[in-house]
């Protein structure tokens, strides 16, 4: 959380024109900081030690190991794939007979890279696609599967179905997260899908006077190749029901949600994790009314999580617009500023769900019922222009700007480790904010992939409070409220004029209390920040690091040049008196692994 100290009051509240030439901007910053120092010196002799620091550093990061926020759920590093454009065919599934290296028809490079980032959860089959999808169509012999009209004006061949998805998860080593069709199928199909996925094989006790016998759905599953149950515990009950999922009001959706979840078969002592459709962006009206309507019937207690979708458009005024590759410095700052509003979306919804700020940290009563936040769609969404090819609907290029947004977003989730349980990027391959791009035998990782990898040490670690002090950046385009998108959200996000000059998060390793991971994003296009990193009550023995930075913010990887943007080791100086002085390059993401004495 950015809280300026006295030293930085002038610099952090003064708008720094981002269009200023580099040299003038540096002079401006120096002057502002010096002016602030002079003011502080005149005002208080007690600040003299801070002045000494300011001669060595442009910014400060103080880590507070004694102030834990919560365990960082590995599931905030989750993924989403949908039958949309080139995501499933040919991003994930190329078919067994393809010349592209595959395992059971699934692209090997996709599997390898998902394993490399320890993807914990994969969501499927949509998205909007889920609410017109019949899971029966994708089971059984491939040559018997029907081709059907599906969302996104597509015809789906159903060659990739439930068993293929489960195999994908198994090969990656991740958990499945299924989105159920609430718009075009009855509750019966939902609970039979649970039966099909989770009923054990063999004779099942009847729990009645009748004899034990096999479950018919389990027999069907076995006949289709999987005797053992899939044990799916995470279920989305519909998707965007305020929009493509049915154009419902919160009250209408609450009634559907209650009906779908009033009874479902159970094969585990742990209840299934049902996720209700939440807001579009910062629409707290949806959430407040949904919770009121859900609780109108005290019997409805089967809510584990609330889904939030928050996309950041490439344009300040229009949803899903702007260019992925061609953007100005002003547009860069504007996108990152609006992306940073994820923080507001989380805290606003935490309160709208009936929590209080006091619930933020260690819960007074950890057994009290709570609803988790599941940010299962997010990312930067641009307009048309950089698609891989016709048919690859919503595929877009990803630059260093998208990598910076990825880092900023993960750091926000980690600073809210006590609230966000699951988060999924939209989408893993060939769609919106992708980690991978693939077209036939061509494949590349995007800069966003590298951020996922660099943030790995945070998975399952203890998030701790980290105070960042740096001059803010000006967002010249933050003049009008921004549209979040969707067709039922009439609210807007407020215009914001400033972007944190440096942001990040910190965590303590679950296996080594002396190992701290600090991730830092410097979003400035031209201002490296020499930063003093210290820990309250502890000293730094040494640190190692990795940095993702490029010559130009527009840099990106292509099939022809897949290594244009990739991480490199960070050059670090030895600590001074238990503190680290490190220069975070302009437009960079850095992971520091800090070992304490
Ligand atoms: O990710 C693309 C689409 O965005 C999803 O299908 C939908 O849920 C959202 O509107």
Please explain how this structure is put together.
This protein is an alpha/beta fold. Helix content is 25%, strand content 23%. The protein has 14 helices and 27 strands. The strands form seven sheets. It has a nine-stranded mixed sheet with strand order 25-24-27-22-21-18-1-23-26, covered by helices on one side. It has an eight-stranded parallel barrel with strand order 2-5-8-11-12-13-14-15, surrounded by five helices. It has a two-stranded antiparallel ribbon with strand order 3-4. A hairpin with a 3-residue loop joins strand 6 (148-150) and strand 7 (154-156). Helix 7 (187-198) crosses helix 8 (216-223) and helix 9 (250-261) packs across helix 10. It starts with 8 loop residues before the first helix and ends with a strand. The model is unreliable at 1-54 (pLDDT under 50). The structure holds alpha-L-arabinofuranose. The site of alpha-L-arabinofuranose has 10 residues, from loops.
What is this structure's SSE topology?
Layout: H1 9-13, H2 22-43, H3 48-56, E1 59-71, E2 78-80, H4 87-92, E3 102-103, E4 106-107, H5 108-116, E5 121-124, E6 148-150, E7 154-156, H6 162-172, E8 175-180, H7 187-198, E9 203-204, E10 213-214, H8 216-223, E11 234-237, H9 250-261, E12 273-276, H10 284-295, E13 305-313, H11 329-339, H12 342-352, E14 372-381, H13 400-415, E15 420-426, E16 436-439, E17 442-445, H14 447-454, E18 462-469, E19 473-474, E20 498-499, E21 503-508, E22 515-522, E23 529-535, E24 540-548, E25 568-569, E26 580-584, E27 588-596
Parallel strand pairs: 1-23, 2-5, 2-15, 5-8, 8-11, 11-12, 12-13, 13-14, 14-15
Antiparallel strand pairs: 1-18, 3-4, 6-7, 9-10, 16-17, 18-21, 19-20, 21-22, 22-27, 23-26, 24-25, 24-27
Alpha-L-arabinofuranose binds at residues 82, 126-128, 239-240, 377, 426-427, 432.
């Amino acid at each position: 959380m950015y809280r300026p100290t006295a030293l930085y009051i002038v610099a952090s509240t003064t708008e720094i024109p981002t269009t200023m030439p580099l040299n003038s901007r540096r002079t401006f910053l120096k002057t502002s900081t010096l002016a602030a120092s002079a003011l502080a010196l005149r005002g208080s002799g007690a600040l003299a030690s801070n002045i000494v620091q300011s001669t060595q550093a442009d910014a400060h990061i103080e880590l507070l190991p004694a102030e834990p926020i919560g365990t960082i759920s590995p599931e905030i590093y989750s993924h989403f794939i949908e039958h949309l454009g080139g995501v499933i065919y040919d991003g994930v599934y190329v078919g067994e007979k393809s010349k592209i290296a595959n395992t059971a028809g699934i692209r090997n490079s996709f599997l390898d890279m998902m394993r490399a980032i320890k993807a914990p959860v994969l969501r499927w089959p949509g998205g909007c696609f889920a609410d017109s999808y019949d899971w029966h169509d994708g089971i059984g012999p491939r040559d018997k599967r029907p081709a059907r009209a599906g969302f996104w004006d597509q015809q789906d061949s159903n060659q990739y179905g439930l068993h293929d998805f489960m195999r994908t998860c198994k090969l990656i080593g991740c958990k499945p997260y299924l989105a159920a069709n609430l718009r075009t199928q009855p509750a019966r199909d939902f609970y039979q899908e649970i039966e099909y996925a989770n009923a054990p094989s063999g004779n099942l006790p009847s729990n009645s006077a009748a004899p034990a016998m096999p479950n018919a759905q389990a027999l069907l599953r076995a006949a289709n190749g999987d005797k053992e149950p899939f044990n799916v515990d995470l279920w989305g009950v519909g998707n965007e029901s305020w929009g493509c999922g049915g154009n419902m009001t919160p009250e209408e959706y609450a009634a559907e949600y209650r009906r779908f979840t009033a009874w479902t078969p159970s094969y585990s002592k742990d209840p299934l994790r049902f996720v209700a459709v939440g807001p579009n962006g910062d629409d707290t009206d949806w959430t407040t009314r949904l919770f009121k309507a859900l609780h109108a019937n005290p019997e409805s207690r089967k809510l584990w999580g609330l889904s939030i979708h928050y996309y950041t458009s490439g344009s300040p005024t229009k949803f899903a617009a702007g260019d992925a590759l061609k953007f100005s410095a002003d547009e860069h700052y504007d996108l990152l500023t609006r992306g940073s509003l994820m923080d507001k979306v989380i805290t606003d919804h935490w309160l709208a769900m009936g929590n209080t700020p006091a619930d933020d940290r260690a819960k007074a009563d950890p057994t009290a019922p709570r609803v988790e936040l599941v940010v299962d769609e997010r990312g930067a969404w641009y307009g048309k222009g950089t698609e891989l090819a016709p048919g690859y609907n919503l595929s877009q290029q990803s630059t260093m700007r998208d990598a910076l947004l990825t880092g900023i977003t993960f750091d926000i989730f980690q600073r809210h480790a006590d609230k966000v349980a699951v988060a999924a990027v939209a989408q893993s391959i060939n769609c919106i904010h992708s980690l991978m791009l693939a077209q036939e035998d061509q494949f590349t990782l995007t800069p966003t992939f590298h951020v996922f990898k660099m943030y790995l040490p945070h998975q399952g670690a203890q998030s701790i409070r980290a105070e960042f002090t740096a001059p803010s950046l000006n967002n010249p385009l933050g003049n009008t409220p921004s549209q979040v998108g969707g067709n039922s959200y009439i609210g807007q996000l407020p215009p914001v004029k400033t972007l944190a000059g440096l942001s990040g998060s910190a965590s303590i390793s679950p296996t080594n209390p002396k190992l701290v991971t600090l991730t830092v994003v410097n979003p400035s296009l031209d201002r490296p920040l020499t930063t003093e990193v210290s820990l309250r009550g502890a000293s730094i023995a040494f640190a190692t690091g990795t940095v993702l930075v490029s010559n130009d913010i527009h840099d990106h990887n292509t099939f022809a040049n897949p290594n244009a943007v990739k991480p490199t080791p960070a050059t670090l100086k030895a600590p001074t008196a238990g503190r680290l002085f490190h220069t975070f390059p302009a437009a960079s993401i850095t992971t520091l692994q800090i070992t304490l004495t």
